[in-house]
Every structure is written in C-alpha cells, then in structure tokens.
Design a protein that fits this description.
homodimer, 232 residues, alpha+beta, Jelly Rolls, Arc Repressor Mutant, subunit A, DNA-binding
Chain lengths: 232, 232
DNA sequence: CGTTTCTTTGAGGATATTCAATTTATGTGG
DNA sequence: CCACATAAATTGAATATCCTCAAAGAAACG
C-alpha cells in the first residue's frame, strides 16, 4: 500500500483531524504496515507498550483477561480506531489484548517516532485527548449499565451500540457487519453464553432479530430493542 | 489564597508536571477559586461544559445518574485531581455530577483561557492524556470486576483501592480518611446498601475492619481483604 | 428530646448461573 | 462430496447469589 493510499485512509481518522494533506503524507511515510489474519494479535496484555496503532481496515476485538482466566470484551474496533496509544504514553504495559476478528491491516509507529509526530503536529495531542475522553465516557456508561441494569437490557443496549457504531441498512432491517458469537456477546455484557442464547432465542421468536451462527445478525425491529433497553 | 500558595498546590498536581515555577505562576494567576461546602456541586450532569477544575483541597464524589434516577459513583477524587476537562475538550455536556463530600476548594479556568494555557505550555496536553488514560484503565479494571466477580470480592476490591489511593497508617491499621456510607459503597460497587451492610458486619465480626457511621473506616487486616479480593 | 437519617437484620423470592445433555453448524480429511 | 470430528448453540433442571420488602434499632442533628 503506497503513501497516497495511506493518506486516503488517514483523512478519515479522527486522530489526524486538522492535519493538512502534506502533514498526512509525513505521518503516512513514517507508518509501517502490519497485517493480521483472523484470530491473530498484534500484541498481548502485559507486554511493554512499544507502538501506536491505527486500524487501516478490518476489525479487532479488545479483550481483557483476569488473573483467573476469565475474559471480558472491552470493545470492538474498526477502521480509523486507535490502539495501544494510552499504554505507550503512560509508559505502562498494554492493559488488554487486541484480537483480529477478520483479516485486518494496522498501521503502526514506534513510540519514539510517534512522539516526534505529536510534537510536530500539535492537533494530534488534542485529538488524542478527545478520543480517549470519548472512550472514557463510553466506559462510564457501560459501567453504569452493568451496575444498574438486568441482563436482558444490557444485551439490548450492547446490540444497539453496535448498530449505531457500525450498523448497515439491509432489506430486512439493520445488519451488524461482522460475525459475533453468543459467547462474545456474553463477554461484552457480563453474563453467560447460556443467558445470551436464551435471550436471543426469545427475540428471534418475537421476530426482533435473526442470524444464525457465523452469519451476520440482522435486527428487524430496532425500535423493539430500544424499548427493551429503556424499559424501567 | 495568593498566587504563591496556588503555585505550591500546583507543584503536586500531575496535570502541571514538567512546568517551571514561572509557568505555574502564570497558570495560577489565571485560575479562579471556587469554594464548596459539603454536599454542594460545582456543576451538574447534562450542563454545557464551560470550565476546567482542579481540586485544591477537600474531597469530591463523582456521580452518574440514570434516566430512571438510579445513581452510580464513578469515583472519589481528592487534591490534585482533574475535573470537567474531558467534557470541555470534547465539547459535550458534563457526563457526571461532582458532589463535595467535605468542604472543598477548587481552582478553575474557563475553556478559552485554559486552551491558551495548553497552547503555551505543551506538557499540559501530554499530562492530560496520561491522566485520562489512567482513568480509562481504572474503569476498564472496574468493568472487568463488575462483569466477572461476586459482590463480596467487589466490595473488598473497592476498599483496597481506596486504601491504596488515600489510605493513612494509624495505630489499629489503615484508615480511609473520609466518611463513606454503606449506600455510597453500594453505589460504588454495583450492589445494594443491604448487601454492603451484611458484608461489612461479617467483616467486623472477623475483626477485619471497624468504623461506625460518620467515622472513618479502619482496616485492621488489609491482608485478609486482599485474600478475599483475590480468592477464586 | 424528638426527628431524621443511616444501619442492621430477617424472610422470601427473582434473576441469572451452573451443570448437564442434545442439537445444529462448520470444517477437514479421505 | 461425504463422513466424521470439532466447535457453537440450544434448552432443561437445579441451585445460588443477591435483591426486594419489611421492620426495628442506633446514631446524628437541631
């Protein structure tokens, strides 16, 4: 992938908002491509943080594992999303493991190179604060949800969040454009795959959604999900 | 409070790390003092974000309320902590309400003034990213906890976190240097005050901790709490 | 000293987990 | 392309954790 193609990607990356095409070219030239096949990981939770990553294309799931081996999904990430930067800047080990859920391409910079870029292009710092701040607020909302709401509502909210973030209109409703297993949904909402399965089965009965294993979920009645997510 | 006194405070504020005493003086001169009595709030969740705050002295609890009126405590904050900045920089309404749990003094800057300071003193931006990033990681840990652990462990972890953050050695153990009610602990750990009460009662029986209403909690056996927090 | 607020404790019940078994889908090697 | 192996999903039954409801006790406040 040449520099021009990278610049084209970076034009839609929030981290680089406010940079001129010339600036982006500099940034792009310093980047290294990093390709991942499905299920591969660019780094692991606990490793020293050495690189900043931006997702060029593909999708990544961000996992955090407990000492006892239980797993939680922090978020799903897609093109333009930022990865690893907080750990690099805080000079702490990566706190989570990203796993490609599709073949993906990341662009990355070493800590030192990226520090130079941040110095040279001041908007990057401010963009970074906004991005990290946005994630902080997302997490605050999820924490509140997890603390106050029952499982069914949390699953509905999680699906709606994915619809809002990456949903695509299709004939029968809105589609979540990547495969997500019952287990992943459980790890995302703090419940068990059994409860997720029962809940989705019930919703399929009701015609709210459809989508079997390794096909994309299609939400036929998003308004019903909203009702469930908001019901007292 | 004169500028020199403010500078003395700012020398220990992470947001201003790396600034010279002269820099701090500039920052201090631009600040406005904002005093709060117990239970007062500098701003409310949902209001447009207009100011950056730093806690000079005192303590603040950061609340997030659901549409239905349920409350969650995001964190307790003390001297040197940053308040409101993420919302100001993202140009979104404040996502939470800070409430003074003791008489407190905040120092604040308008969005515009602070933007100038950030431009003039580049370390501030980087410090801000580190601080917000740190909070993000704290929240990720709490989310994982809430998703995977049972109530007793969560309460133990919450107490230990407060001990680590603000604990003070006293004769009988370690003291949490501010009053915290059963209800607050419940809102901090995603449970009910009843369950917290039962749990603390049991721990008091065991001699793990002590401290009645409106006195400070004293943890006599922190190691036992660690065991509880880490037990499989 | 009465009122308010916070805390404690009990009993009953609901939600969601755990355990267990089966069904269904996917992938692989012959 | 089929048969088998593997992985994912479904569903039922039993159980546990924690919440809700209820009431009373203790501490703080004016």
């Amino acid at each position: 992938m040449d520099v021009a193609a990278r610049v084209a990607i970076f034009e839609r990356v929030p981290l680089f908002a406010g940079l001129t095409p010339q600036d982006l070219e500099v940034v792009a030239r310093e980047a290294h491509e990093y390709r991942l096949k499905k299920d591969q990981q660019p780094f692991q939770q606990g490793e020293p943080a050495t690189h900043h990553y931006v997702i060029g294309w593909g999708r990544v799931r961000l996992d955090q594992t407990t000492p006892e081996g239980q797993n939680v999904i922090l978020r799903f990430m897609g093109p333009g999303d930022l990865l690893g930067s907080v750990a690099v800047l805080r000079e702490v080990p990566y706190p989570a493991t990203p796993i490609a859920i599709e073949d993906s391409m990341l662009l990355r910079w070493s800590a030192g190179r990226f520090a130079e870029l941040m110095q040279r292009f001041p908007p990057i710092s401010l963009n970074a604060i906004r991005i990290v701040g946005g994630r902080l607020q997302d997490l605050q909302d999820r924490l509140r949800e997890l603390a106050t709401q029952r499982v069914e509502r949390r699953i509905a909210s999680a699906l709606l969040r994915m619809v809002r973030q990456s949903g695509r209109r299709v004939e029968r409703g809105v589609e979540i454009p990547f495969v997500i297993s019952r287990n992943e949904l459980a790890e995302l909402t703090g419940t068990t795959l059994h409860t997720v399965s029962r809940t989705l089965s019930a919703w399929e009965q009701e015609g709210i959604l459809s989508g079997k294993r390794s096909s994309h979920l299609i939400i036929a009645k998003p308004h019903r999900l909203v009702e469930i997510a908001e019901q007292a």
